């Protein structure tokens, strides 16, 4: 009976330890920064997708003679007997490739910008002393004591 109770107590303590450990992990700055980054990234993705679908691709379509990329497709197998057609939507794929290229270019520029800022901060932190600092009065006295002791021990 006592073994059974102690086993349950250990399990409860392990459970509390796990919850505490998870809480400590979840509240670390890196995890919160990552969550914020994911949320901002999703919002940025929506903006870029809209830019590609609603502005860039229609402009490219007009330049190519009025092509609507959203509807570009190739029917592999037509609809038959109540089954849907098998369609290869390559226009949508082209839009997604352009979408990816814009997002990856934006991320590259952002990372390069942040790296440049961080390197400037590191350069500012490097302090070059113009002249050596003067020893304090205590250091001068300790030096005199040391020198005197050396003279005494050499005699």
Adjacency order of strands in the biggest sheet: 1-2
Might you state the CATH topology name?
Non-ribosomal Peptide Synthetase Peptidyl Carrier Protein, Chain A
Q: Helix and strand string, N-terminal first?
A: HHEEHH
- Which structural class should the secondary elements be placed in? mainly alpha
- How many beta-strand runs? 2
Distance between the termini: 82 Å
CATH superfamily: Large-conductance mechanosensitive channel, MscL, domain 1
Please, how many helices?
4
CATH class: Mainly Alpha
Number of structural domains:
1
- In CATH, the architecture is Orthogonal Bundle
Radius of gyration, in angstroms, nearest whole number: 35 Å
Which range best describes the helical content: under 10%, 10-25%, 25-40%, 40-55%, 55-70% or over 70%? over 70%
Oligomeric state: single chain
- CA-based shape: elongated
Sheet-strand content, in percent, reads under 5%
Mean pLDDT across all residues, rounded? Answer: 83
């Amino acid at each position: 009976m006592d073994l059974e109770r102690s086993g349950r107590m250990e399990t409860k303590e392990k459970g509390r330890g796990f919850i505490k450990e998870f809480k400590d992990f979840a509240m670390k700055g890196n995890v919160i920064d990552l969550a914020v980054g994911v949320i901002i990234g999703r919002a940025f993705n929506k903006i870029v997708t809209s830019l590609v679908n609603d502005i860039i691709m229609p402009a490219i379509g007009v330049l190519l003679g009025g092509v609507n990329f959203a509807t570009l497709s190739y029917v592999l197998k037509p609809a038959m007997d109540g089954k849907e057609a098998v369609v290869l939507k390559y226009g949508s794929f082209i839009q997604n490739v352009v979408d990816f290229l814009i997002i990856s270019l934006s991320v590259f520029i952002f990372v390069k910008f942040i790296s440049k800022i961080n390197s400037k901060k590191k350069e500012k932190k490097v302090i070059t002393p113009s002249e050596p600092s003067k020893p304090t009065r205590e250091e001068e006295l300790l030096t005199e004591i040391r020198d005197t002791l050396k003279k005494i021990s050499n005699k």
